[in-house]
Amino acid sequence: MDLNEYQKASRRTKMYPEKLDGGIYYSTLGLCGEAGELANKVKKIARDNNLDKEGIKGELGDILWYVASVSEEIGYSLEEIANYNLEKLNKRMEEGKISGNGDER
Ligand SMILES: [Mg+2]
Asked: Start and end of every NTP pyrophosphohydrolase MazG-like domain (predicted)?
């Protein structure tokens, strides 16, 4: 399955209240929530010395779902987001700017 196929398939389980015109808000807050769930699973590696790979796998999937959702809300395909990210990172690598701070490097 490619990224755009995933994005299209994932929309079949979209259940947030579009009538509130809040899709981007709902999706972004959901993404942040899932990132928090991932962080909590990773925290438990340190606390309990327990690597819950299945749990982390699940949270990464949840994050992917919301990334697809936010992307759709602003009119981008998941493939466009992935390609844009790789182009940005490759440019930074070529320019020796892969480390450091700031979006505009
Ligand atoms: Mg989750």
From this structure: 30-94
How far is the centre of ligand 1, averaged over its atoms, from the C-alpha of 59 (Å)? 5
How much distance in Å is there from the Cα of 78 to the middle of ligand 1? 20
Longest dimension (CA), the chain: 46
User: The tokens 């929309």 sit on which residue?
Assistant: 11
pTM of the model: 0.88
Q: Which residues of the chain have pLDDT under 50?
A: none
Domain that holds residue 44: 3-76
**Ligand 1 centroid distance, CA of 38 (Å):** 7
- The alpha carbon of 95 and the centre of ligand 1 are apart by a number of angstroms equal to 37
Q: Any idea what the CATH number is for the domain that residue 34 is in?
A: 1.10.287
- Ligand 1 centroid–CA 37 distance in Å is 6
pLDDT at position 19: 62
Tokens of 53: 């790979």
Q: How many domains does the chain have?
A: 1
Residue in 66, 64, 68, 86 with CA at minimum distance from that of residue 77: 68
Examine residue 96 and state whether it is found in any structural domain, yes or no: no
- Give the model confidence (pLDDT) of 34-47 as tens digits: 999 999 999 999 99
